[in-house]
Amino acid sequence: MAPQNKNVFSKEIIMYFVLLPFIYIVPMCTDLTIVGWNAHGFNQVATDYCRTLMESFKIIAISEHWLHSNNLYELDSIHSEFRSHGRASKHLDPMSCGLRPGFGGVAIFWHKSLDSYVVPLAQLNNDRICGIKLILSKNSTVNILSVYLPTHNSHLDDFSEYLDELGEIVCQLKDTGEVIIIGDMNSHIGDGPRGWGETTTHGKHLLQFMQRHNLICTDLMDSATGPDFTFQSYSNHRSYIDHCVVTRSILNQISQCGVIEEHPFNLSDHLPVYILVDVEGLAWKPTKIEYPTKIL
Fold it and tell me: Which of 86, 148, 179, 247 holds its CA 20 to 30 A away from the CA of 122?
């Protein structure tokens, strides 16, 4: 059963709305650079590749870090210029840490230069979904969710319950700003300019989910670049299961998107998906306030 979560707003988010009239947002860089990657477990090589991604992207969403809940602090040691927020699989017993390998888990990193814009969505009580709220200005917010949905080997009801939970979160976050969902969705989609093969059952459910919530998959658009697959098994079976799904209202601000080519440091069986968003097209010009207040 997917965890029930009727209220996704943490104390930090509530404080954000209380303090918002007094906030002065300093203009940020032109492009918001976001990448999602299934690390297939953090080891030294995966850590090195994550650092490589951090050279080009300000926000990194991770699926399958394999850390136990009492080891999530290790995420902050990957790069001194990045902070993190993560969740461990609910099926991992903290007492087994160091005794047996981990699995699952999601995380999101952001560069320290974004600290004054970022509020972690700490109350998302879900081991497959975590995220941050990025406050660009008084009237412009982007919610970024890192996801790892159940595999095709899981029961369809399990997949559907997590997708329904994600839908509830999206409905609430859309009231506060744009939404970007990125990560391993375990859903092969044959539709679209870059789709191929037969859409899987999970893929059909994801398409219905996007239609219900007025979302679009950016990496399947004809403007996307890079390989037309994101997963390659060790027996060379390929599929397109990692995606970046966004609110349609953000489309005009997307400057680039797609799948990143293979890299010597990437020993995972997944390729990353990425998106670049023109922040200036999203954010209103902030109004300077006499007494600026920083969000804690």
Answer: 247
Question: What's the CA gap between 240 and 47, in Å, rounded?
Answer: 24
- C-alpha angle 155-161-165 in degrees, rounded to nearest 5: 150
Q: List the Cα angle 134/123/100 in 5-degree steps.
A: 105
- Provide CB contacts within 8 A for 220, sequence distance 6+: 189, 191, 192, 193, 194, 195, 240, 243
The letter for the amino acid at 271 is L
Sign of CA dihedral 279, 284, 290, 294: negative
For residue 157, count other CB atoms closer than 10 A to its CB. Answer: 11
Task: Using the predicted structure, report yes or no on whether residue 272 has a pLDDT greater than 60.
Answer: yes
How does pLDDT run across 38-82, given as a tens digit for each residue?
999 988 899 999 999 999 999 999 999 989 888 889 999 999 999
Cβ atoms of 84 and 107 closer than 8 Å:
yes
For the entire predicted model, the pTM comes to 0.85
Judge whether residue 27 has pLDDT over 60.
no
Among 120, 143, 115, 140, residue whose Cα is nearest residue 34: 143
What ranges in 59-142 are assigned the alpha helix state H? none
CA 170 – CA 164 distance, rounded (Å): 10
User: What does the pLDDT look like over 167-195, one tens digit per residue?
Assistant: 999 999 999 999 999 999 999 999 989 99
Sign of CA dihedral 99, 102, 108, 113: positive
